[in-house]
Each structure stands twice: as C-alpha cells, then as structure tokens.
Automatic annotation (TrEMBL):
Pfam families: PRAI. CDD domains: PRAI. Pathway: Amino-acid biosynthesis; L-tryptophan biosynthesis; L-tryptophan from chorismate: step 3/5. Keywords: Amino-acid biosynthesis, Aromatic amino acid biosynthesis, Isomerase, Tryptophan biosynthesis. It comes from the Bacteria. Its EC number is 5.3.1.24. SUPFAM superfamilies: Ribulose-phoshate binding barrel. Belongs to the TrpF family. One of its GO terms (molecular function) is phosphoribosylanthranilate isomerase activity. It is an enzyme of class 5 (isomerase). One of its GO terms (biological process) is L-tryptophan biosynthetic process. InterPro entries: Aldolase_TIM, PRAI_dom, RibuloseP-bd_barrel, TrpF_fam. This is N-(5'-phosphoribosyl)anthranilate isomerase.
Length: 221
C-alpha cells in the first residue's frame, strides 16, 4: 500500500493562500505567532484566516519563547488544533504552555551538523517524558532567527527508527521533496520558504506544485 506523507504548509497569512493550500490538499496549515517574523500574524488575524480552514485540516500555531499565558491567550481567540514550539523552550516549558492551552504540541529541533542520532532520540524521549501532550519532533535546519530559513540540513543524521514519527522541514521545495521522502521516509513534511516568491510572500502555484510533488513521491513509494 502506498504511504501518505502528511503535508503542512507553514507561515500563511492571507486567506488566498490558506485557500490555495486547502484546495491543493494540505493536511495542516501553520501560522507564526512571533512578531519578529516576516510571516507573523496575531490572534485576531489568525481567527479570520481560520474561517478558510475546513473540518479535518489542522491549524498549527508556531511560538517562539512564549509563556503559557500568551499561548493560552492565542488559543482562546483563534481555533488552533496544535502548537509548535520553535524557540529555546525546555521540555517543561513546552509542557506548561501546552497544558495551559489544552493542545498537543510538536517540538521543533534545529539540527546542527554536530548533532548525532542519539541526540535526536534523547530529545524525543525528554519531551515525551515531560508531557502527554507531546505529539512529536519537527526537524529543521539551524538558522539565525529560529526558523523558516529555507535551509536544508544533513538528513543522514536522522535515525531510521525516528524517521516514521518526524515532521521533516528545512529548505524543502517542489524540486527536492521527492528525494527527501525517498531518503528519509518521514511521517510528514513541512514547508514555508520553498513555496514563497519572496521572504514571507507565498505563491499559490508553488504551494500546489509542492503538494503535487509529495503526492507523486508517495505514489512511487
Ligand atoms: O517562518 C518563520 O519566520 C519562523 C520564525 C520563527 C520560528 C519559526 C518560523 N518558521 C518555521 C516554519 O515555517 C517551519 O516549521 C519550517 O521551519 C519551515 O522552514 P523552511 O521551509 O525552511 O522555510
């Protein structure tokens, strides 16, 4: 049976692009609640964008070093299905923010060249031990500014046993998605820069092409 790699399109901030991602078949939409990001949205904007998100498509909120009150405050205003922590949060800080918001969370790990398979497995074990709301790791490349940098990391660092549970991100696009899926076999892929025409500016055709590339790769599996 063919595998179905889940797809998250991240950093959306217009209804047109949320609609494009949904129409193309995205499983999840990501919105960035980090004021320093060129992709930032606030809670009222997210609530408005969420009207274009139909049932069974997840809406994921990204946070960088936000406390429990801030995260819970966003969740009270915008219908986030899941959280994604991208800053320097410890396992306990993620656990506390997720508990305050009452949502599952994904922990983004920015992979550096010196990390080893054992480090990634330990991250997973530590976050899992800290909270029943931990849903899994998202692996991204290390970049200044915490994320959304469009940079690929060395996929061979991902342990084979972890791959079926991870969200792979960092520099993915329609051109390298099939290679990433064939080599890593992740649970899901996540893209932001690779579906943009300029930093923070999404493009409907690129969103469509990325999702098509993932679906084609799944068929060839
Ligand atoms: O997108 C941002 O500007 C951002 C800022 C701070 C933390 C995380 C941020 N984005 C994370 C993502 O969009 C994705 O999870 C992932 O890193 C995608 O990265 P890429 O496709 O390489 O742009």
């Amino acid at each position: 049976m063919n595998k179905r790699t889940r797809i998250k399109i991240c950093g959306l901030r217009t209804t047109e692009h949320v609609q494009a991602a949904v129409d193309a078949g995205a499983d999840a939409i990501g919105m960035v609640f980090y004021a320093k990001s060129p992709r930032a949205v606030d809670a009222p904007e997210a609530a408005s964008l969420a009207r274009a998100v139909p049932p069974y498509v997840s809406l994921v909120g990204l946070f960088v070093n936000a406390g429990p009150e801030e995260v819970a405050g966003v969740v009270r205003q915008a219908p986030l299905s899941q959280l994604q922590f991208h800053g320097d949060e410890s396992p306990q800080q993620c656990a506390d923010a997720a508990a305050a918001a009452g949502r599952q969370f994904t922990r983004a790990i920015r992979v550096t060249p010196d990390m080893r398979a054992a480090d990634l497995l330990k991250y997973e074990a530590d976050y899992r031990a800290a909270s029943p709301l931990f849903a899994g790791l998202l692996l991204d490349a290390f970049v200044d500014g915490y994320g959304g940098g469009g940079k690929v990391f060395d996929w061979s660092l991902i342990p084979e046993e972890l791959a079926p549970r991870v969200v792979l991100s960092g520099g993915l696009n329609a051109q390298n998605a099939a290679d990433a899926i064939r080599r890593v076999r992740p649970y899901a892929v996540d893209v932001s820069s690779g579906v943009e025409v300029a930093k923070g500016v999404k493009d409907a055709a690129r969103i469509h092409a990325f999702i098509q590339a993932v679906r084609m790769a799944d068929l060839q599996d």
